[in-house]
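Reproducibility note. Readers wishing to regenerate the assembly model reported in the main text can use the exact inputs given here. Chain order matters: entities are listed in the order in which they were concatenated for prediction.
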Amino acid sequence: MVHEGAEDPMAALGLPALSRVAICGGTHGNELSGVYLLRELQKSRQEEAPDSVALVTVMSNPRAVQQCRRYTETDLNRCFTDATLSSPISDRTPYEIVRAQELNALLGPKGSADAVDLVCDLHNTTANMGLCFISYSDCDWICLHICRHLQMPSTPVRYLHYNIPQSEAYSLESVGKHGFAMEIGPQPHGVIRADIMGIMAEGVRLMLDWVCRFNSGEQFKGDKMEVYTLVRNVDYPRDPATHSIIAAIHPQLQDRDFCLLHHGDPLFLHFSGKTECYPWAEPLYPFFVNEGAYYEKGIALSLAHKNTVGIPPICVQRD
Amino acid sequence: MVHEGAEDPMAALGLPALSRVAICGGTHGNELSGVYLLRELQKSRQEEAPDSVALVTVMSNPRAVQQCRRYTETDLNRCFTDATLSSPISDRTPYEIVRAQELNALLGPKGSADAVDLVCDLHNTTANMGLCFISYSDCDWICLHICRHLQMPSTPVRYLHYNIPQSEAYSLESVGKHGFAMEIGPQPHGVIRADIMGIMAEGVRLMLDWVCRFNSGEQFKGDKMEVYTLVRNVDYPRDPATHSIIAAIHPQLQDRDFCLLHHGDPLFLHFSGKTECYPWAEPLYPFFVNEGAYYEKGIALSLAHKNTVGIPPICVQRD
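Running the prediction on these inputs yields the following structure tokens for the assembly.
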């Protein structure tokens, strides 16, 4: 059963089977590829149950989906820290905190042996990021191997790493034993583009394909992979008095996510006409460039450095 | 003062001066080019008052702007019919209806001699429409001449005509003696793109330039212009039971606004994989293709036919 020739199968790292996999959409209610792909999965999965995987499909924030908004009271995908998941609930608790605790009961509890083995949470961005895995670990071999398996001609596939401790990891995928957000753009929020939805459908298909092959005993060879690690977020220039933004992403940076920025490269075009440049000595890779949902979070773009990570050969652990 | 050589100045149609001009932004609070351009105009206009024009700048829906939403309770830009403008106000009247009546008092009253001479209402669309004038008349020579004046290398400029009686005209620009929406895309709602905002700034600059030249006595020669007239709107295919959409705009149609559609051309790609084609015999021009705000209105795209309209030479009416 060695399809992807691990030269020395004896060296493969044994990892537990991925028996329970959750695919979540609508964590942000106006990111429509995930919402509609999830509905399609829920229709089709009623007939064709996969052999080696118990698949759970979850519409994470049905109220926000119904209103076609990111969230109703607070951003659900910032509610999965240990602190928020254990906070007391009252009549005045925002809906999304109540819902996060429900999802944690369904898919977790986070950090416990009962948690699902893998969470894939479907997202869209207005930024030109192609397909990105976003994960809290750069040594989760399952996530890295799945990402490596998702090579497709229609879009670049990259792995983004947020270096945050698990207890403070704030997003839904942190509830699983393994997990990642599948972030695809560019697509305006509140809009479905067939091309972007097609990429997401193919990404989910390849992920499930990998999981089934892994569970069935296939060995996957080691490799080197590029991993982008978040260094810092950069806010828009703002008026100190009103806090209103006074510049847009520079046209030379717009749509150029993951194109390395050097000292002096244009970052912002002020409404006054002035260009503001990249002020740092260290070149870094921009991403989430002009993401619509991040204006309110004070993020115009994020910056990452790129590392090469060695990933070991892996196979399912024999009982 | 004949700059644009009207061959026979005696033939020019005399029209009243455009003494009071209103530029409005934020009629939809998440269409950000207009919101931020209006703020810039409000800053700069405090210093440089134009000679021949009394310019009014209006943030139409400040509550929606503050929340970065299209509207808070109902779509403001559907509230300017005679019926809604004269409806009684109570404690339960939606904010936008109250605001429409305020704006009508400020800029109108609609249809009266007191109304401002020209309303330019700034909008964005997620559709790839370039810059469009949208007007309720295909014989408003002022709007047509201004549109003709707005030729720019960075984007196509087109004139869209909605054939609706003035009393039922529902949008803000119908309050002025002349008026048009300046619609620019593609731009996601809730996002500012420097390129799109630059096109809008240039469009507003050229409009004010034309108005000042018109008021100062310049004659503008007659011409022929292409005018697109709305024929019908087309909804997404929907599940009859849930009303949920079951198809996206076909990738071959996406981003191809104003490319003539013929019988059999792809319109929709169903999530099931099926392609649904253009069913009509008459070829028509699509626009507002996949506009994000129109999902809730049941509009996937609109269809227009194209006419050539002769516009007469005009000049300001001498007192």
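We highlight two features of this model. The first strand of chain A starts at residue 13 and ends at 15. Chain A touches chain B at residues 36, 39-40, 68, 126, 186, 188-195, 197-198, 244-245, 248-251, 254, 269, 271, 290, 292-293, 295-296 (CB under 8 Å).
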